[in-house]
């Protein structure tokens, strides 16, 4: 009975959690698609150069979300509502503080970041450098909203507000698509406009979720007295594994950007940016599944139900791998069409991107297990 109930709950939570994890990546993919359709290879290269910085920023939000899932689940499992509210208050304060620091640093040293990322490499295109800088300057003001949005996922899941979570995901995707078109095609703001669209889409999603957090039946209440350095340390400690994996990923992207630019120029960097966007989207299957697994396994662990925990992990991993395998088949079959959305068929950039997407999808199952 309990096993069937947990299986049902985990399956109901999995798809919303995967979609929530995919939100930021879907926005990056939409950005990539709109840039390819409305702007050009120069802007795609700029987007590719800025990707490592954007991933580092996004990984901080994911770290806080993962840490919150662990801390909050343990508190709810113990029936300790004060501790859960302390986690809630501390995570909001962390989002504002860390986000503000990042905004100040990036704006103060934006050009230096562009040079470090490779956009200002020797022999590089001045237009690519300008568009990289423009995108970063447009994206950075929305960092605090992006952090808030990352935190809404675990809290809404804990309160059982899956419909609100799904609505926020749809809001981000549609608003990003519409705003990208308005800023890039109508207002001709190019990469700066693409960055602003990402910031505003996160703001709209957060505004949609605010009603739940200010309602009378909300489980969580913000309090300045609830902000705790100990709780902040716990969030960072429990969320730190995602930072390690993301830092390694960023180093890989950065090294490939520099290497491909020196070997094949901007076209290769543009192709890699598309491959990375598809890869990040597919990685979210494992990230979303990991989020649900963390939440429910923490509850079972607090109950000291080791047999139930072992059965849950076995069933859940098998279910997730089935979804992952289906995704691999779809990507392998649809890769030519997906690539054609970004580049003209037969071009050198198209060929590089197609090979990259197919190679990555073949490695998706072990990546998901990891």
Report Rg: 21 Å
Main beta sheet, described? none
Structural class: mainly alpha
Number of helices: 13
Shape: globular
Short description:
With 370 residues, the protein is mainly α. The protein has 13 helices and no strands. The mean pLDDT is 78.
Main features:
370 residues; 13 helices; 86% helix; mainly alpha
Task: Please specify the SSE layout and strand pairing.
Elements: H1 2-39, H2 41-78, H3 81-108, H4 110-117, H5 126-139, H6 143-158, H7 162-186, H8 190-213, H9 229-264, H10 266-302, H11 306-340, H12 348-362, H13 364-369
Description of the molecule:
- With 370 residues, this protein is mostly helical.
- 86% of the residues lie in helices and 0% in strands.
- It is built from 13 helices and no strands.
- It has helices spanning 2-39, 41-78, 81-108, 110-117, 126-139, 143-158, 162-186, 190-213, 229-264, 266-302, 306-340, 348-362, 364-369.
- Helix 2 runs parallel beside helix 5 (126-139).
- The longest helix is centred in the N-terminal third of the chain and has 38 residues, at 2-39.
- The model has no long low-confidence stretch (mean pLDDT 78).
